[in-house]
Design a protein that fits this description.
By secondary structure, this protein is an alpha/beta fold. It contains twelve helices and nine strands. Strands 5-4-3-2-1-9-8-7-6 form a nine-stranded parallel beta sheet.
């Protein structure tokens, strides 16, 4: 069974909500990402989303866009991400890892070769932000054939037809974007989130997790009350950016700072 499915099965048995944490590969330095991944798990993350740096991350807000820029300046790439996940697996064979990014790097690598490498490395899921379901049919079938889940996004503006299409193809969980706009936006409307999550749940048996606008324990708890889990990204990346501005290079400093954020959110979810 895919690690993502196992993770949600175990969380359901324990009556817990999923905490999915996002960081960008190679931000702000290459040697910091692997320690951060292990720290995310140690402080309470259930699933890791590893952002693949891209030159035009259109779905991202300024905080994560700058993280992509820093990572690209370091020469971080999809190839490196696959190697890093393989290294992560040497000491963690349980935590699901999702690669989140854009179509271009995968196309350049080649879909079949990417899936082969991802399978060998121990990747559990792929979220390709700019690949619509209509264009993802063959890729989706190949991923499923290799045991890798294809995660899809749905937004408040997604039509009923689009929701039905996405839920018919999605694997692992459905990622509901709680806000109109880009990552890091504000003005979280819990009533609206509950309405949309309920509708998505009527279309699929997959868990529905919510991202965008989750910035602390309070917002995470509120969203978790109406969903199966939360995705935290900008809050983590913003803390990393603050340390990067101060020219901090010690991985342990980043580990400690990010662990505080995740521990707070995990505590809020469990209480």
């Amino acid at each position: 069974m895919n690690r993502i499915k196992k993770c949600f099965r175990n969380l359901t048995q324990k009556k817990k909500k999923a905490l999915i944490s996002y960081i960008v590969l190679g931000d702000p330095e290459k040697n910091i990402t692997l320690p951060l991944m292990h720290a995310l798990v140690a402080s309470g993350s259930d699933i890791i989303e590893l952002g693949i740096p891209f030159s035009d991350p259109t779905a991202e807000g300024p905080v994560i866009q700058r993280a992509h820029e820093r990572a690209l300046e370091n020469g971080s790439s999809l190839n490196e991400a696959l190697s890093l996940v393989k290294e992560f697996r040497e000491s963690d064979a349980i935590t699901p890892v999702i690669l989140m990014g854009y179509t271009n790097p995968i196309e350049r690598l080649g879909y079949d070769y990417f899936i082969e490498r991802a399978t060998i490395s121990g990747v559990d899921g792929v979220l390709t932000v700019d690949l619509p379901p209509e264009e993802a049919v063959t890729f989706n079938q190949s991923l499923k054939g290799s045991g890798i889940e294809n995660i899809f996004l749905l937004a408040p503006t997604s039509s009923q037809k689009r929701q039905e299409k996405v839920t018919s193809m999605a694997g692992g969980f459905v990622y509901y974007v709680s806000l109109n706009g880009v990552t890091g936006a504000a003005n979280l409307d819990i009533v609206s989130v509950q309405k949309h999550v309920s509708n998505i749940r009527s279309l699929t048996n997959l868990p529905v997790c919510v991202g965008f606008g989750i910035k602390d324990g309070v917002t995470a708890r509120a969203v978790a009350d109406v969903s199966d889990g939360v995705v935290v990204g900008s809050a983590i990346v913003n803390k990393i950016a603050d340390l990067a501005k101060s020219k901090e290079s010690n991985p342990l400093v980043y580990v400690d700072a990010v662990s505080v954020i995740i521990t707070d959110i995990r505590s809020a979810l469990d209480n």
